[in-house]
Specification:
Strand content: 5-15%
Mean pLDDT: 87
Number of helices: 20
Oligomer: single chain
Helix content: 55-70%
Radius of gyration: 40 Å
Strand order of the largest sheet: 1-2-3
């Protein structure tokens, strides 16, 4: 303060010294110092105080506006993909920065108080939004329940499984548990691939399912392996449609669960020890391959104590039973076949030359023995790749019924009651008859069963159809109407095997392609040439 005062004294003294011989300038100097300067300073002081008051007012107004705006408009941001997000009405969605700015400036214009600070407020709010990462948001109960209700029962058999799966995905996004390996079915891997695609597009995180494996590798430690199962009938196309609608919601809930439970292992640890999900997930954690094989043997193999009736099981058949064990318990194969064989050889008598185990039996072998015999005796492989021949096919339900019928007709050689599940039937074909072309695990192509000539049945129905059509004066008949007449004929004759509408129409498209018009109609006159 003293320095400033001394400088002022020096300046005034200097001015008086400068103009001491100029009376006019001395009067001007005196007038300015005594009259104008105090008024000017007083004016400046009042303006300064007004600016301070206004600045304080606008600062407070801005703080209130920012707080209210961000509360009413929950926007978030992810820097890795440079995207903004909005969470409203229980749904997350990507939003453009321009849309945020438009809403922000419109709100400021309506408020009017902050018009002078419009740009400053915009910059402030955008900065705060960029500091709010999407993964800090906490989904509402409505959002969480919606995701759980979709995952269970669409993908998982229980809500606990759904929560566990979400926590795993959240861990992977947050890179928490890179050492864990999750063994899943090949169908689930397809589901996860779709989720990977959604994650890459919406949050910029790729390969969030890279620790989900469909095959066990010997480098994997059992201690780090976890099992997780899904419902086998999940449609990939349905799942893809689901992710288009709620994919971002699912990922946000997944991150929320990871933050809430700490990790997927902490989630499982929090379950009761006798919880079936916990037992399944941690099945391999405290086991060795020998213990797993012992578990298989306890459940699927019995020792034969009858020395007079020696039983034997070929390795290929025992290997098949092992696959049944994996399928029935929904385990991913966690032991290489040669290692499995080595462990079994250490437990049971084995003939290297015949590749056969002695002194053991399994209740799971009879039905597949019967089915193999049924297949070998009744099924013929037809042409492949000949475009001039009809691509014959049988559905899995039809094969099941034919097998059951064959068992009844061959009671003297049967070992089972003929009851077989779709999974077991498919396993047998893929294991023993891998030259069969199977589509969607439902249709078996280019085969023919001597127990039922499907084409012959349709051809035999043409005469009945023609007789029926004489009652009407029609030029065209739909494929569906023809099938209905065929179906009526089968019912009247009490036929147990009736071809499906799909197969019936497929055959008509092949045989009567020149007479089909408007995609679904057949010229009636063409039928009389059959």
């Amino acid at each position: 303060m003293n320095d400033e005062l001394n400088k002022c004294h020096e300046m005034v003294n200097s001015l008086f010294e400068k103009y001491k011989s100029n009376e006019y300038m001395l009067n001007r100097l005196f007038n300015n110092l005594l009259n104008h300067l105090p008024n000017t300073l007083e004016y400046e002081l009042k303006n300064y105080e007004k600016r301070i008051d206004r600045n304080n007012f606008l600062t407070n107004e801005q703080q209130t506006f920012v707080q209210v705006f961000l509360q009413k408009n929950p926007y978030y941001y992810l820097p890795n993909i440079n995207l903004y997000y909005e969470y409203t009405d229980g749904l997350y969605k990507i939003i453009r920065e321009d849309d945020i700015i438009h809403k922000l400036l419109s709100s400021i214009s309506k408020d009017r108080v902050l018009l002078d600070w419009k740009q400053k407020t915009k910059i402030n709010i955008l900065k705060q939004i960029k500091e709010r990462t999407l993964f800090q948001s906490i989904p509402e109960t409505e959002t969480i329940q919606n995701i759980l209700n979709i995952l269970n029962p669409t993908v998982f058999e229980s809500r606990k499984y759904a929560k566990y799966f979400l926590t795993i995905i959240g861990d992977n996004i947050l890179k928490k548990t890179p050492s864990l390996i999750f063994l899943v079915s090949s169908k689930m891997k397809k589901i996860l691939t779709e989720l990977d695609n959604t994650s890459g597009k919406t949050i910029g995180y790729n390969n969030i399912s890279n620790n989900f494996m469909t095959k066990y590798h010997e480098n994997h430690s059992y201690e780090n392996c976890r099992l997780i199962k899904m419902i086998d009938s999940v449609s990939t196309s349905l799942w893809r449609d689901i992710l288009k609608k709620i994919g971002l919601d699912l990922l946000c809930v997944a991150v929320h669960y990871s933050n809430r439970y700490g990790s997927s292992d902490y989630f499982i640890d929090g379950l009761d020890d006798d919880d079936e999900i916990k037992k399944y997930v941690l099945y391999l954690k405290h086991k060795t391959p020998v213990q797993v094989v012992s578990d298989f043997c306890d459940k699927y193999i019995q020792r034969n104590t009858d020395n007079e009736n020696v039983t034997l099981v070929e390795w290929k058949n025992l290997h098949f039973v092992w696959k049944q064990f994996l399928t029935n318990y929904k385990y991913t194969n966690m032991i290489y076949s040669q290692h499995l064989k080595s462990i079994l050889k250490s437990k049971y008598k084995f003939d290297e030359e015949k590749d056969t185990f002695y002194g053991i039996i399994s209740k799971f072998i009879p039905v597949h023995k019967d089915f193999i015999l049924f297949w070998e005796k009744t099924i013929h492989i037809l042409h492949t790749g000949n475009t001039e021949c009809f691509d014959n096919e049988y559905e899995i339900d039809e094969i099941t019924l034919l097998f059951k019928y064959w068992i009844k007709q061959n009671s003297d050689i049967k070992c089972s009651n003929g009851l077989i599940t779709d999974d077991s039937l498919l396993q047998i074909l893929k294991h023993y008859f891998n030259n069969i072309e199977i589509v969607e695990d439902k249709y078996f192509l280019n085969i023919e069963c001597i127990l039922w000539n499907k084409i012959g049945d349709i051809n035999d129905s043409f005469q009945y159809i023609k007789e029926k059509l004489t009652e009407y004066n029609l030029e065209l008949i739909t494929l569906e109407e023809m099938y209905n007449i065929y179906y009526e004929k089968c019912l009247s004759e009490s036929k147990k095997m009736i071809v499906s509408k799909r197969y019936f129409e497929k055959y008509l498209y092949f045989r009567l392609s020149d007479y089909i018009v408007y995609d679904k109609f057949i010229e009636v006159k063409s039928l009389y040439s059959l």
